[in-house]
What does this fold into?
Amino acid sequence: MSERILIVGATGQLGLALRRQLDLDQRSAVALGPHDLDLTAFDVGDRIAGLEPTAVINAAAWTDVRAAEQATNRQLVWEVNCHGPRRLAECCAELGVPLVHVSTDYVFDGQADQPYKEDAPTGPLQAYGMSKLDGEREVLRVYPESLIARTSTVYGDRPEGPPHYVDAILAQAREHGALEVVRPPVSSPSYTVDIAAGLIHLLDAQARGVVHVVNDGAASRLELAAEAVRLAGFDFEVGERAAPPDDLERPDYSVLDTSRYRELTGRSMRPWQDALRDYVCGLDG
Ligand SMILES: NC(=O)c1ccc[n+]([C@@H]2O[C@H](COP(=O)([O-])OP(=O)(O)OC[C@H]3O[C@@H](n4cnc5c(N)ncnc54)[C@H](OP(=O)(O)O)[C@@H]3O)[C@@H](O)[C@H]2O)c1
It folds into this structure.
């Protein structure tokens, strides 16, 4: 049977990078945006089965962390982040094809003082993290051979939707010529190009269970902003400001350990600074 990798959520920033990487590798992929395949549709399994995939990568998610807190959105958030992935997993189990499901560092409570390993206790602080953790559990419950790839602080070419942190910082730098940001949280900033390549290496290695797929190292938001501004050639220092009051809880520290990724693939994820350089230096204007 010839290869046919389905990308679900193909219009998101990670979905776009997956499309590009598979294209570069000259591998056969079918890219499905939300208008081609709605994860919340009851017949999602039949639709997937009809496409006869040899593997499925799910990059679709409800990713608006603040909006996920609104009671009126709760049901849809769980549909997209938990029940839809479960239906995908049921379908992949029936077809006997690999499933890669993408998850998040927000499954952790952020109280650690060293990088989180895959089996570290979880404790999400907000609805988004809870829905993603429920999604992980449901996917593994119905199809234990699935791969759950957790990533963090994602940036890359973004075809649509609100800007990610790095783009927002650079837009402010261009507009104001100065910048002050809040230092925390500390996480593993990760470039979509590297995550996409990592997911494909894991798929090829027939990896299962939970694996952390992030660029190596740790950065606070202040360090990430300062490095992006420096790489973009601005000649000012990014200042630090106090965090404004906010009732949305996020993990203070969510650096992810990538040793399992290295063991499974025999490859390393490159340091976040190298990945950020590629992204910022590749931007137009
Ligand atoms: N962004 C981050 O910083 C971050 C950090 C850690 C983990 N992650 C995880 O990484 C993965 C990829 O995130 P991303 O940054 O690429 O997100 P993104 O750019 O927001 O892309 C998510 C995609 O999912 C689609 N989608 C939403 N609801 C859908 C539905 N019902 N059916 C089908 N597709 C639907 C979205 O379409 P619309 O835009 O039309 O809604 C969008 O194309 C997600 O699992 C996310 O939880 C992200």
